[in-house]
Design a protein that fits this description.
The structure holds 2 protein chains of 2 kinds.
Chain A lengths: L1 H10 L13 H22 L6 H21 L3 H7 L6 H7 L16 H29 L10 H30 L1 H4 L8 H11 L2 H10 L20 H29 L12 H33 L12 H35 L6 H15 L17 H10 L1 H15 L4 E2 L2 H24 L1 H7 L3 H31 L5 H28 L13 H31 L31 E2 L14 E3 L6 H8 L1
Helix pairs in contact in A: 2-3, 3-12, 6-7, 6-9, 6-21, 7-11, 7-13, 7-19, 9-11, 10-11, 11-12, 12-13, 12-14, 13-14, 13-16, 13-17, 13-19, 14-16, 17-19, 17-20, 19-20, 20-21
Chain B lengths: L9 H4 L3 H6 L1 H31 L6 H35 E2 L15 H30 L8 E8 L2 E6 L5 E3 L2 E4 L4 E7 L4 E5 L4 E5 L5 E5 L5 E7 L11 E7 L1 H10 L16
Parallel strand pairs in B: 2-6, 5-11
Antiparallel strand pairs in B: 2-3, 3-4, 6-9, 7-8, 7-10, 10-11
Helix pairs in contact in B: 3-4, 4-5
Chain lengths: 638, 276
């Protein structure tokens, strides 16, 4: 991008830009609200007599909001300018990249990948906050038997929105912030392959968040996050909001995934062969590829649900010739690969950090790649293990048990790589290393409990029970999210130029780890005793473990608040980090913290893999592309 | 990248075991082996304890298979968990360094083909074992072994209650489930509205109740008493309260229960073909 814009600047050196420079998040919200209200009112008037009229009006209103927001935020400025025959000038491109705009660039349609990364991080932390508050409400309801706090309708809505908000948050939590902020620098690029698509990906996700929240205003959802039909067809209009938000999220994720894949494929620095590419880059590329394949199934399922609800299309309604198993298959064709879309980037971040804090090369690096590729390939072949008790295709129980159990082989390889790297290393006990150990503990429990669930007879007992809830929280929260929190601590200095306060962060780590294990080990216990998932009330026999679980959840919440405090206070006034506080070898540590607009002064050249710890002759780069700070970084490299 | 660059000299020559154990590297292996061994024993004890301590009462042959599966898988998992956790803990204990960066890096071990190969073989063998175990238990739990003729019970879920009927006993119907002891039972399960899931936690069986489709599952109750019937699939407003009881009775008691509810044991009632 940089080269072409420079040429363009010489051809047409003009300022101006007019309207484009006045658009930001607030104009987006303004226009979005106007169009939403207009579409909703018109819809109500047009379809007043239709039994599905309310659904149609809600759908129209939500679509109005999305289109209004995207126009208002300036997502279509460049295409409109092209249609008018006025190309973007170099000044315009620099404006879009957020040059010299200070904080306000975070509230605009800004194309700089580092701005998009920060935007994703703040958005993910916000949605984690929302999902976390909902989790606390759920656990408080379950503190004692007797449905003491909420009625069943409210409770079911809490469960459903908590689930989907957390799924969305965990999908974006590594790829969004670090895939955008760090990955291009890590491969020696000046930006993503498609900077405007990058901004579009974020600003398409942003309007989905209010739509998720609007589910509450439209009667909630009774279905949980799986949104099974035909329960979804009898649900209130909250279900329409849910479906629109999912469709929007999948579009956003697709745009982001394509961008990451193309960037990793085509923009790696000179000399960065696949063998020299950091494992984190490979991991988020694999995760994005998997998301690109899997997530559209959910989009299609939600589109059909909308058609069923608003126009009686009967894709999923058995009394009109549809099939609930069609929905379940579409959902899980997305649903199982999706857990690896969450897990692989988090695991890749852990794999990236382990050599740095063990001061040893990544052990069996090729096996880590084989493990990741194995997870990607197998994860699209296991979806029906979620349907073992559905009654659909009992003859497939054996084959799906096989594919599911095979997943333990690539997962085992990743454990081998981690343990092999740690073994005999110089274990540098800093905060990211604590998170690596937390990952090893939690993800092992999550993995082993998954093996019980892969077994059909055991699954017949455990499916739909709290055991499953505990299992996937161990993999997604205890595994992937603990890894993502470690990644936040690790790359925080690069992003902000300041160290995260490790004393406060360590307190947060222990609170989260202890709280997490208390909460979900109790949940395993209740699940084994026979307590179903997603219930607003339960029999007194489950009371003790539920109370312990709720207290554990409060400990997690306090830990997360401490972690948030550490982030905010360190961002404002943390210790200056310098370019390479962890003495790491990947390219992002050669540029200043925070990196300048186009990252490198000249493009770097890669000469070896980035894990040459203890090997004086292995250099990841001899020309790091940064003239001004190269003195300090070459010293570190040696 | 995975060629042997392990710097431990005694690895290549492989002197006798006693000498290796006395050497610094061998001592290391013995110490970490001890940690892994202790951890394995602890995890094995836990793995043997918990399936019995936490699962509900075993009231059917199916639940017995579930209990055995959890037990066997826990035993198989214990050494693997112990290895990963043991080595991680040992490394943290013996080679940790806090504060500033360690003055020198660790040994540049890039990998070891023997270790990776053994790891792959062991994990493949374990996986094959899990699969064979699972398939044989699956066959055992889905085949009706007893020679007694199975009792067929039709189960209908609707928002938010269960109903049961006994088409082979004069069409008796009931809101509670009553089962004969030591006789195979085949449940034919359907729903009138949304998806429910018919779950007998003490008998280890669960099958979804789907609208417009009949699914089936079977078990043999092996314990007298009153147990739980729950819905295990979120089915709307009162999902939490969609539960009832399952009472297992001896053969004579079961027959008299049928009679007091206006049925005749063994009298077959023709059903509508559309239910199939």
């Amino acid at each position: 991008m940089a080269e072409t814009t420079l040429v363009r600047a010489e051809a047409a050196p003009s300022a101006g830009g007019g309207l484009m420079r006045r658009l930001n998040m607030w104009t987006g919200i303004g226009l979005g609200v106007v169009l939403a209200v207009a579409a909703y009112v018109i819809g109500q008037a047009l379809w007043a007599d239709d039994p599905q009229g309310t659904d149609q009006a809600v759908i129209a209103g939500e679509i109005g909001w999305v289109i209004g927001f995207l126009i208002g935020v300036g997502a279509f400025v460049a295409p409109i300018r092209w249609m008018l025959g006025r190309d973007l000038t170099h000044d315009d491109e620099m404006f879009l990249a957020g040059k010299d705009q200070g904080v306000s660039r975070y509230f605009r349609f800004t194309t700089d990948h580092k701005v998009v990364g920060v935007q994703y991080l703040v958005l993910a932390m916000t949605t984690f906050g929302v999902g976390g508050i909902l989790a606390m409400m759920i656990r408080t309801q379950l503190l004692r038997p007797g449905a003491t706090l909420f009625g069943p309708q409210t409770y079911n809505a809490l469960v459903g929105v908590h689930g989907i908000v957390m799924i969305v948050s965990t999908i974006i939590m590594v790829v969004g912030p670090w895939g955008n902020f760090i990955m291009p620098i890590m491969i020696g690029a000046r930006d993503m392959a498609f900077p405007r698509l990058n901004a579009l990906s974020f600003w398409t996700l942003f309007p989905a968040v209010p739509i998720f929240l609007s589910i509450a205003a439209f009667g909630g959802i009774p279905t949980g996050l799986v949104a099974y039909a035909p329960l979804s067809t009898q649900a209130p209009p909250g279900m329409d909001a849910f479906a629109i938000a999912i469709i929007l999220f999948v579009i956003s994720a697709g745009i982001g995934a394509v961008n990451i894949i193309v960037t990793a494929l085509s923009m790696r620095a000179k000399g960065m062969t696949w063998n020299r590419t950091p494992i984190f880059v490979l991991g988020i590329t694999a995760g994005s590829l998997l998301g690109l394949v899997a997530l559209p199934c959910f989009e299609v399922a939600m589109l059909y649900t909308l058609l069923d609800r608003s126009m009686l299309a009967s894709f999923f309604t058995p009394d009109q010739g549809g099939s609930q198993w069609l929905y379940a298959n579409l959902f899980w064709l997305m649903g199982h690969p999706e857990v690896y879309v969450i897990l692989i980037p988090g695991t890749a971040a852990v794999l990236e950090m382990t050599p740095v804090f063990a001061r040893k090369p990544l052990y069996g690096a090729k096996m880590a790649v084989v493990g990741i590729i194995g997870l990607v390939a197998l994860s699209i072949l296991v979806w029906a293990h979620h349907m073992f008790v559905s009654g659909w295709a009992p003859t497939l129980a054996g084959p799906f048990m096989l594919t599911t159990e095979l997943i333990s082989i690539p997962t085992g390889l990743i454990f081998l790589v981690l343990v092999g790297t740690i073994w005999r290393g110089k274990i540098w006990v800093r905060l990211p290393m604590l998170f690596i150990y937390g990952f090893l503990w939690n993800f092992m429990i999550g993995g082993v409990t998954g093996i019980y669930l892969s077994d059909v007879p055991a699954d017949n007992e455990l499916h739909g029970a709290l055991f499953v809830t505990a299992h996937f929280h161990y993999t997604l929260l205890g595994g992937a999210m603990i890894g993502a929190m470690g990644a936040l601590v690790y790359w925080f200095p690069k992003m902000t130029g300041r160290m995260l306060n490790e004393r406060v962060g360590t307190v947060a780590f222990w609170l989260v780890m202890i709280g997490f294990n208390v909460t979900f080990l109790s949940m395993f216990y209740n699940g084994l005793e026979g307590m179903p998932r997603r219930v607003a009330d339960y029999q007194p026999q489950f009371a003790t473990a539920n109370m312990i679980s709720t207290f554990g959840a409060y400990i997690i919440a306090s830990g997360m608040l401490v972690f948030l405090y550490a982030i905010i206070s360190s961002w404002r006034s943390g210790k200056e980090a310098g370019p390479n506080p962890w003495h790491a070898k990947t390219l992002e540590w050669f540029v200043p913290s925070p990196p300048p607009l186009e990252n490198f002064e000249v493009l770097p050249v890669v000469t070896g893999d980035p894990y040459g710890y203890g090997e004086p002759d292995t250099h990841h780069t001899t020309h790091p592309g940064v003239v001004s700070v190269s003195a300090s970084t070459t010293e570190v490299d040696g | 990248m995975t060629h042997d660059t392990d710097v431990v000299p005694e690895e290549s020559a492989r002197p006798p075991l006693q000498e290796r154990l006395r050497s610094p590297g061998g001592k290391l292996a013995a110490r970490v082996g001890l940690v892994v061994l202790i951890l394995t024993v602890v995890l094995l004890a836990f793995g043997i304890w918990w399936p019995n301590a936490t699962l509900p009462t075993t009231a059917s042959d199916t639940q017995e298979a579930v209990r055995m599966t959890l037990l066997v898988f826990s035993i198989a998992a214990a050494p693997v968990m112990a290895l990963v956790w043991g080595i991680s803990y040992f490394s943290l204990r013996h080679w940790s360094h806090s504060g500033d960066a360690p003055p020198e890096d660790g040994p540049p071990i890039r990998g070891n083909n023997r270790v990776v190969g053994s790891w792959l073989i062991v994990s493949s063998v374990l996986t094959a074992f899990l699969l064979v175990w699972g398939l044989s238990e699956l066959t055992a739990t889905t085949t009706i072994s007893s020679s007694a003729s199975p009792e067929i019970i039709k189960v209908t879920g609707q928002q938010w209650l269960w109903s049961f009927s006994y088409p082979e006993d004069g069409g008796v119907s009931s809101p509670d489930l009553v089962l004969p002891l030591n006789r195979p039972v085949v449940f034919q399960v359907t729903s009138t509205d949304v998806i429910h899931s018919f779950w007998l936690p003490e008998m280890g069986i669960k099958i979804d109740a789907n609208p417009a489709v009949t699914t089936s599952v079977s078990t043999t109750p092996t314990l007298l008493g009153t147990f739980n019937v729950r819905c295990a699939e979120l089915c709307g407003l009162n999902h939490s309260y969609m539960e009832t009881t399952a009472t297992v009775m001896g053969g004579d008691d079961f027959n008299s229960w049928i009679q007091t509810h206006g049925g005749t044991p063994g009298q077959h009632v023709a059903e509508e073909a559309s239910n199939g």
